[in-house]
Amino acid sequence: MTDSYPSTNPRVRISALEVLSDNWYTLRKVTFEYLGRDNRWTTQEREAYDRGNGATVLLIDWQRRTVLLTRQFRAPAYLNGHDDGMLLEAPAGLLDLDDAETAIRREAEEETGCRIDTITQIFDLYMSPGSVTERVVFFVAEYSPQHRVDEGGGLTGEGEDIEVVELDLDQAFAQVASGEINDGKTVLLLQWAQLHGPAAFAI
């Protein structure tokens, strides 16, 4: 239905939105007219993958100078040249029907076994706007050994097999520099921590 198309940009007139796949998430083809800087309208087509929005959190212990990450197999990374597909990442997940903070508290506990107290939002970003609709909300939260309520590891019923990895903070920074940590959201979070330090949590 055309009345459900976005219409806030006067340089874009959407004429069709076709579902190409609805197997795992939703892949759509959008046909639209675009008014270029030369004042000419052109008809264009793009594909957009909609997997819902997500959230991620950097769990950091400033006193012990550690971060709590996860390691799990990522098939798309493996298919695109990663040696074994096992990526070191900050905890993350889809919002489903929850707000971002509720969702990431749930995901952090499922994946790492940590029950977060205070949490701070730092970003709300489109991660791959050329092809994926997803927006990811970024958080940081302090943790300590007392926040561990179970072993984590994800939900086996959802096929998750997640290793919890605690790294020295300087080691994590070094692994970003060397490329060993090459997950985009995790790099952004660690670089934020490196730039701002513990003083940011006093804000």
Please, could you describe this protein's structure?
The chain has 203 residues and is α+β, with helices and mostly antiparallel strands. The protein folds into 2 domains: 2-50, no CATH class; 54-197, Nucleoside Triphosphate Pyrophosphohydrolase (Alpha-Beta Complex), CATH 3.90.79.10. It is 20% helix and 37% strand. The strands form 2 sheets. Strands 4, 5, 6, 7, 8, 9 and 10 form a 7-stranded mixed beta sheet that branches. A 3-stranded antiparallel beta sheet has the order 1-2-3, with no helix packed on it. The longest helix has 13 residues, at 100-112. It is elongated and about 60 Å long. The model has no long low-confidence stretch (mean pLDDT 92).
Short description, anyone?
With 203 residues, this protein is α+β, with helices and mostly antiparallel strands. Helix content is 20%, strand content 37%.
